[in-house]
Amino acid sequence: AQSVAQPEDQVNVAEGNPLTVKCTYSVSGNPYLFWYVQYPNRGLQFLLKYITGDNLVKGSYGFEAEFNKSQTSFHLKKPSALVSDSALYFCAVGGGTGKLIFGQGTTLQVKP
Amino acid sequence: GAGVSQSPRYKVAKRGQDVALRCDPISGHVSLFWYQQALGQGPEFLTYFQNEAQLDKSGLPSDRFFAERPEGSVSTLKIQRTQQEDSAVYLCASSLPLTGTGGYTFGSGTRLTVV
User: Fold this and answer.
1) What residues form DSSP beta bridges with B104?
2) Any CB–CB contact under 8 A between A43 and chain B?
3) What is the spatial distance between Cα A105 and Cα A36, in angstroms, rounded to a whole number?
4) Is there a contact between B90 and B34 (Cβ–Cβ < 8 Å)?
């Protein structure tokens, strides 16, 4: 069975500092991995995905994620955090069926 | 339309009442998904359509939940005899035919509160 874990409920960083939001996954076969962001009272917005190819994936708003097969991780990163990045972030794993399995979410708080 | 549209935005239902939630996907998007997001949780898969065919309904929590997409465009999620545990945000997403590889576009959701 597919599953995804986000070990941190909340991540706090100062504006301008690098940020990392962690995600690990468990799948049989090759994973399709996604990151989404959710602002209050809004739907999920797609940030980036890994399907195949380069392990470093670049996405929207300056975010990137690194696929690490040996550690079964897909951590979200950004070199310099903005206050406006504060939101709820979800990692998800999918397969050929299209169904996504989401993690519990990590709240990112960026302080000025 | 430009995005996935869901209505109503908010719905308060008395326990035992039937409700219908509407999703209008992006024009041309063949695949449509429904997810349920309880407070403080990640979204959980309910059901999936490709055109009008419901290919996966394994996530529907009970036979009180029913979804349809009769013409392969607009979809309706119906919940009969609502219970308090049905209170959640119901999200709809659509994607181009290459499901599994694309980033899905989600609507803003319908927040259902059962009192």
Assistant:
1) none
2) yes
3) 9
4) yes
Q: Do B99 and A51 touch (CB under 8 A)?
A: no
The encoded tokens of residue B6 equal 């869901």
Q: Which of A42, A43, A98 sits opposite B99 (nearest CB)?
A: A98
pLDDT of residue A42: 77
A104 Cβ contact list (under 8 Å, min separation 6): A5, A6, A9, B41, B42
The token pair at A12 is 């706090």
CA within 13 Å, CB half, B58: 6
Convert the pLDDT of each residue in A71-92 to its tens digit: 999 999 999 999 999 999 999 9
Distance (Å, whole) CA A79 – CA B49: 38
Q: What value, to the nearest 5°, has the Cα angle with vertex A82 and ends A43 and B5? A: 15
Taking alpha carbons only, the member of A42, A40, A44, A77 closest to residue A61 is A77
Which pLDDT tens digit goes with each residue over A37-65? 999 877 899 999 998 888 999 999 999 99
